[in-house]
Design goal:
4% strand; 7 helices; 147 residues; elongated; two-stranded parallel ribbon; mainly alpha
Amino acid sequence: MQKSSVAPLLLAGLLGAPLPLAAADDGRVAVDMPEMMRAHMMANMRDHLTAIHEIQGLLAAGEYDAAAEVAETRLGMSSLGSHGASHMAGFMPKGMQETGTAMHQAASRFAVTAQEAAVTRDLPRALGALGGITTNCVACHAAYRLK
């Protein structure tokens, strides 16, 4: 088989494979909240994802201080007021609250690490700290879903 024909076959196999979890088989905890709060939480999570995307681009460009600023203002502990975290917490299971808090704490730690990397140019260390943020995102999304 030629090398160029392997990729289309692989893609075809992946597209034909069943989805790993159908909605009925979803073992995550379903979190119920009023629609307005659900929409607010979804908007926050989309902004978190956008912030992480921006941080990756800034790190790639060597703009460590700017990455730190995005992390702290949009994801870090100082961002909680703008996200309405105190209003949201009452609708979340304790484990979801704890994972969210851990994500915000990791973002603040990343901001410090990124500022240090502005001096040391230690990109691997900054990327490791960024991974500390996304570890919490992955853990939360693996355990919980909004109804």
